[in-house]
Amino acid sequence: MSGLTTQRWSPYEMAFWLLPVAAFFIFPKYLTLGSQILITGMFALSLDLILGYARILSLGQAAFFGVGAYTAGLLAKYGWTEPLSGLLVAAVVAALLGLVTSFLVVRGQDLTRLMVTMGIGLMLYEAANQATSITGGVDGLSGIEMGKIFGVFGFGMDGRTAYIYALCVLFVVFCILRVVVRSPFGLSLRGIREGERRMPAIGASVPRKLIAVYTMGACVAGIAGALLAQTTQFVGIDTLGFPRSAELMIMLVLGGTGYLYGALIGAAVFMITQDYLSNLNPVYWQFWLGLLLVLIVMFARGGILGGLLALRRRASRPA
Question: CB count, 10 Å around CB of 215?
Fold first, then answer.
């Protein structure tokens, strides 16, 4: 019974997911930005899964994002235009890459993992840059034409289909991850995060669990990349770039790690703030974004969501 209780959706969670639904009707002119936020939120989920729950530091998550994007883009360019099956293939390819590279990542500790993941990302970036006949190099992969979802819903210039498609895929992926992190497997990941050296004493295989969660994170990143390719019908080489991985880390710091919802909040705050500040001041917008990051780190430990939860705990204490 207690296990079922932990899987119940709270009113706060329900209200959270009603926000993007309401945004679809309230901000019809910003649906393109909205779909980008949803896709980036899913990308942030992939890092939160491995960092927030298993403490695997990574600066190369863009490698799986880019591989997913290129897989979906190449499939569509050469005739496989059905979106959902293309999404599935991209997820499998990214997961396989994550599985292969995970044996290198889980062997080290924090600094080693940072260097290894960054190195993997840089190698894939340069490989895509050199394989111009396949990826288009710095010009990007163009000529992508997506078919209709279920043969009915086509991608239009208004961004309505792309937004709904991204929201539905994000919600499905989030529900799966929500079950995973609240399962015994998720509890064991928390145990690894809090005390990796103690877990073998209770019979837990730390390397296997780290490999599993790292592969899962790669899969989620690949789905996000494929969504980007399908909704924009273009894949730029920047999808594999180091700046994208660095921005992902900033989003998690903003939103808070180890909550799942923190990744979504951080991605939304980062992208909305970036869009607003860049329009307000195209030259110095990064200064204000940096100031926001410093203030949140100083006054809201655990990110925005961590700060809100702390305030809620204080408010609930008896006077």
Answer: 20
Q: Token pair for residue 172? A: 């499905």
Domain locations in the chain as residue ranges: 2-241
Nearest-angstrom CA–CA distance, 205 and 201: 10
Distances (CA, A) of 180 to 174, 214, 285: 10, 13, 38
pTM for the structure as a whole: 0.92
pLDDT tens-digit map of 129-183: 999 989 998 999 988 989 999 888 889 888 899 999 999 999 999 999 999 999 9
59 token code pair: 């600066």
Sign of the alpha-carbon torsion through 276, 16, 163, 48:
positive
Distance from C-alpha of 241 to C-alpha of 2, rounded to nearest angstrom? 44
How close are the terminal C-alpha atoms of the chain, in Å?
A: 33
Q: What percent of the chain has pLDDT over 70?
A: 94
User: Which contacts (CB < 8 Å, 24+ apart) does range 92-96 have?
Assistant: 92/219, 93/67, 93/68, 93/222, 94/64, 94/65, 94/67, 94/68, 94/218, 94/219, 94/221, 94/222, 94/223, 94/225, 95/215, 95/216, 95/218, 95/219, 95/222
Query: Quick one: tokens of 254?
Result: 């903003």
DSSP annotation of 107? T
* 62-111 pLDDT tens trace: 999 999 999 999 999 998 999 999 999 999 999 999 999 999 988 877 78
* Phi (first) and psi of residue 186, to 5 degrees: -65, -40
Tens-place pLDDT, residues 11-48: 999 999 999 999 999 999 999 999 999 999 999 999 99
Q: How far apart are CA 77 and CA 233, in angstroms?
A: 9
Q: How many of the other CB atoms lie within 10 Å of CB of 14?
A: 9
